[in-house]
Amino acid sequence: MTSNANKFFKYALNTSVSVNTSQDIISILSSFKKHKHYRFLDGIIDNLKQNEKNMSKNSDQNEIKNENQNEIQTIRSQLERNESEIAKLNEENIKLRQNLENLESKEILSKIAEFKNSSDIEAVYEFLDELAQKGYQQLMSKACEEGLWETDDSRSQSILHKASIEGNLRLVKSLIECGCDKEIKKYRLGFTPLFEAARQSHFEIVKYLISVGANIETKDSSKRTLLHNASYGGNLDIVKYLVSIGADINAKDMDGETATSVAAMWGQLDVLKFLISAGADKEEKNNNGETTLWKAFEYEKYEIVIYLISIGANTEGLEDQMKTLPMKVAESGSTKTLEYLISNGTDKETKDDHGRTLLICASEKGQLETVKYLISIGADKEAKDDRGKTPIICASEKRKYQVVLYLPTVGADVDAKDNDGKTAFSYLPPFFKKRLMRFSKNADNH
């Protein structure tokens, strides 16, 4: 090995080869190896080639890194220029907005003066809403100082009331921020804006007004609480929220009605269920001794009636109502409620004191879906009441044309007669009789 190296060294000294790069070295050594067959050059050449690859790779990486850094710097420079331009544009926009507001302010101040003594709440509402939309808070303050927000309509309703009713949170906030009285009440009803928002189911406004200190304990002129009004509105989220912050679920108004009574009267089943689950007394009586179930019967909210009965509400004193309940449900068209009653033992052929069956009751009121349900479970379509009238005669007498046309398609006898010898045709106008003729066996007699 030493001998070969010495020979190689002497040979290299006698050459006039120029070496500038590692690739030149590799080429020279490869040439030596080819002609002189020096094996020891193999390892040197391989190492040099690997070093060349590593250097090339590092060079490429450095080049990519430099390119990335250049690109990053370019983007940063562009961002700085853009931010500078945006800042200038923002300044220009502020100046333009100020100029526009200055130009419009004269016109707006003129309108404020014009509306100062106006009772046109719609026009004033639109005007103030526009100010809120444009963000003209100083001019809004001026309008409020001049009393525009207190503009009354025939119901003694302020702009703040109206904004709460309409669910206009932006305007509500703008008015409150300008110092408008959040506790202002309607003259006769005594509703605050918070009451109105609760009645109209505007949860965001309810939360906002409470967050800025609106009185949740206030009552209207009938001593109704906020929970009474929320129960009337039927928004379960609002009701739950009020209960969560301490609303009295058993509070009574001047008539002794609780929130559960209000929910029952207005058919707010989900609210009623929640209040009872939260501890409200379903047997609490009003000043007339009427329970929630009584009020549900009085207001013909039969889905509520069924629910209250299902959870054990006291029916004492309601015997007459309970007796006629199936008929009332059939008349109301509450098919699901009727299904519940029948599935729990009510006879589909049960009759009232006038001999009317459920099918007759539904037919008289034109409750087509309920009629179809009763027919589907086999209700007697030829049953007669005390006057001898069948369901189709009753529907014809009351001009319930959809039911009149449906019953013959399921086999109802259009020629059946009542105690006065009249048929369904006897109660129909001429133009409608023709549509029924095809079902008659005695068409020539009609």
Description:
Keywords: ANK repeat, Coiled coil, Repeat. ANK repeats lie at residues 155-187, 189-221, 222-254, 255-287, 354-386, 387-419. Residues 65-106 form a coiled coil. InterPro entries: Ankyrin_rpt, Ankyrin_rpt-contain_sf. This protein has 22 helices and no strands. Among the domains are: 130-218, Alpha Horseshoe (Serine Threonine Protein Phosphatase 5, Tetratricopeptide repeat), CATH 1.25.40.20; 222-299, Ankyrin repeat-containing domain (Serine Threonine Protein Phosphatase 5, Tetratricopeptide repeat); 319-445, Ankyrin repeat-containing domain (Serine Threonine Protein Phosphatase 5, Tetratricopeptide repeat). The protein is an all-alpha fold and 446 residues long. Helix 20 (391-397) runs antiparallel to helix 21 (401-409). The protein has helices at 2-13, 22-36, 40-115, 121-134, 137-145, 159-166, 169-177, 193-199, 203-211, 226-233, 236-244, 259-265, 269-277, 292-298, 302-310, 319-332, 335-343, 358-364, 368-376, 391-397, 401-409, 430-436.
Draw up the topology in text:
Blueprint: H1 2-13, H2 22-36, H3 40-115, H4 121-134, H5 137-145, H6 159-166, H7 169-177, H8 193-199, H9 203-211, H10 226-233, H11 236-244, H12 259-265, H13 269-277, H14 292-298, H15 302-310, H16 319-332, H17 335-343, H18 358-364, H19 368-376, H20 391-397, H21 401-409, H22 430-436
Helix pairs in contact: 2-3, 4-5, 6-8, 8-9, 8-10, 10-11, 10-12, 12-13, 12-14, 14-15, 16-17, 16-18, 18-19, 18-20, 20-21
